[in-house]
Batch of 2 targets.
Target 1
Amino acid sequence: MGKQTMIKTILSDSPYTDANQSDDFLEIEIKGLGTLAEQGDGRTVLVEFYDDKWWVRVWADINQEDPTHIIDMSRALEHNRDIPNLEPTHYNCCQAPRDLGHMFGCPNNSENAGES
Ligand SMILES: [Zn+2]
């Protein structure tokens, strides 16, 4: 008995005629899962480009006609990536700039304030 294929992807043409939509329309069949409309091997996950956005629609409840999860993937767009500021520009203790501050110790530290 070899390994069994449990998942199948169906890449088909988009049902939308609008030129702004993607031509790709991805459905995922998972063995043993069904939808209200399809018995067994139901297409329970759908990825589509619609209305200028990528969407993932999931039918996680076999007794529900509408998708249980509709995910707008817009926040995953590369241009939304936050560039982490790896070099802090200010000290956390007093917000003094890193390149100038703490020459005479932290102004927020009372021990250092007394020495000046
Ligand atoms: Zn400080």
Note: The pocket of zinc ion is lined by residues 91, 93-94, 96, 102, 106, 108 (CB under 6 Å).
Target 2
Amino acid sequence: MSDVIIVGAGVIGLATAVELARRGASVTVVDAAHPGAGASGRSQGMLLPHGSGPYTELVRPAWQAYHELADAVDLDFGLRPGTQLMLAADEEHLTRARAELAGLRAAGFYAEELDESAVKDLCPGVGPVAGAVAVPDVWTVDPGLVTYAWQRAARIAGARFHFGAEALRVNVTANRAREVQTPDERLSAGSVLLAGGTAQRSLLTRSRLPLPVLGVQGWLLSVAPPPGALRDGVLLTEPGWVAPGQTRRSAVPPTVGDFAGGAQGARVSFALRALSDGSGLLGSSREALPRDPGTPDRAAAAIAARAARFISAVRDWPVTAVRRGVRPALPDGLPAVGRLGPDRLWVSTGHAGDGVLLAPVCARLLADALLDPPGALPPAFDPGRFAGPSQLIQERPDEKGTAWSHSSRPRNNSGCGRDSAYGESNE
Ligand SMILES: Cc1cc2nc3c(=O)[nH]c(=O)nc-3n(C[C@H](O)[C@H](O)[C@H](O)COP(=O)(O)OP(=O)(O)OC[C@H]3O[C@@H](n4cnc5c(N)ncnc54)[C@H](O)[C@@H]3O)c2cc1C
């Protein structure tokens, strides 16, 4: 039996495994596939600052945690400093960039406005632009390697792994999560943490847990720019892309009418970063799943067109790969980190476009709460905020005395201090 079973070997599950194992807990990580199989292996690896919103205070601790990770593992996962250049296409865009500049400065990040000639000094191929905001001293990681760095750190800390093992459901008895059921075995646990990203939706449904995890799909194009076209360490973005509100707007599921009209759902913003091998990673799109099958091509095409608005020569750069990832998100754009339903059941998911950045800080917050209750979890991240009356489930013994049924009456969930909804398996 493990003190904690973690479902999901993405950055969220693995970073939390590191934190818990370092504090002495025995930890087993279960993944249906392998580390990085989900969104974590498909990100752009940018650890961008936020000038407003609930992540502002979390950015510097996250950067610090990535430096500690670099010290802990014998693996270069591409932790590098960079300069973010927020490019403004026109005056209206520049107004938004200036608002971000003010927010970043108020939050203590150094940022400055550049005119077009200063932008061209930094990146000769860019333009025409109305101006830009430069944010020096941001950090990036290699999107492919960062998950392995977290896995290595978790192994060093003593965590164990079950890969290729899908968690089918969480078994709950006497109001307490006790087991994770896989096709081959039941894994006993002191506590269970669900960190399975978008792919855990069927696990949540089978376990009757009221967390509306959505998928926000994003496409990235790997490009091969000519030597010198991308300045090492410069990240080109547009203003406004990092705000959680952007996720909220993109996470709205399509309607039947959207399908009927073949509506384009993807929101696209220019984001280009150089990787250490000289290639570039060009993005990015956001669209709620499910979309009709034609949408991916349109999203990739829209990314290419948006990039050409800022760098005309990009049209000649070979595209060496196109890939998609699905960001786990919740309807309000914020993550769910904390207790969910029965006793000893925890969740950390919905980090949307900032999961790589937030992984180490959310891991610490969750470990504080799990190992040393009540811990101090941000109320805005409370998973219980989605447990509406229509989803509430009331305990009612069946003939075996262990089944659950739906009820409209809220149930006070002991140990959590709030009403919550969940189901109990009788297996
Ligand atoms: C195009 C794109 C660009 C991005 N760029 C950035 C960026 O620049 N910076 C940033 O900070 N973030 C970025 N992100 C977001 C980031 O990648 C995600 O927020 C983060 O990877 C989510 O991690 P996770 O561990 O929650 O989920 P995932 O990485 O999806 O991992 C979940 C894991 O759980 C496993 N799993 C699920 N269900 C089960 C089950 N029932 N049983 C067993 N295993 C299960 C899956 O196999 C998977 O391995 C980007 C995402 C995309 C798609």
Note: The first helix runs from residue 11 to 22.
